[in-house]
Specification:
Blueprint: H1 15-19, H2 31-39, H3 42-45, H4 51-72, E1 80-82, H5 83-90, H6 94-102, E2 109-111, E3 114-118, H7 119-127
Antiparallel strand pairs: 1-3, 2-3
Length: 134
């Protein structure tokens, strides 16, 4: 029983409810339930989902969505930037970025022919006024 009412008979994809062990349906199992039994270890399968589990899931989902939205807005969520990302962020031309690298103003690392810039170091330079977006 769910909230004092009988489970609806396979309405809106709720067929999984009748496959859960309960006094109403003690021996009813469907193909989906058998597949579920084979794929998920019994210790995990038999643990109830608590309200705290759902709240934790909600928080993680919100965090992931915010991270994705920041990435789409042009603010990378990772620590290392490629040249193209840095040029876009600071509105720099290829020549200006090369000049800043050659003068040692912007620290960088090269790995396999690709140049990477540490986001934290770039932000520190911007905060110190050594770099501007203009």
């Amino acid at each position: 029983m769910l909230c004092g009412k009988k489970h609806p008979p396979d309405v809106h994809g709720w067929s999984f409810l009748k496959t859960i062990s309960s006094p109403l349906y003690p021996k009813v199992e469907s193909m989906e339930h058998n597949q579920f039994r084979n794929e998920v270890p019994s210790q995990i399968r038999e643990q109830p989902i608590t309200i705290q589990d759902l709240l934790d899931f909600k928080e993680q989902l919100i965090t992931d969505i915010k991270k994705l939205l920041k990435e789409r807005a042009g603010v990378p969520s990772h620590q290392w930037l490629k040249a193209m990302d840095l040029k876009k962020m600071l509105r720099l031309s290829d020549g200006k970025l090369q000049y800043l690298r050659d003068k040692g103003i912007i620290p960088f690392k090269k790995l396999g022919g690709v140049t990477y810039y540490n986001l934290d170091e770039i932000q520190e330079l911007m905060n110190a006024g050594k770099l501007s977006t203009q």
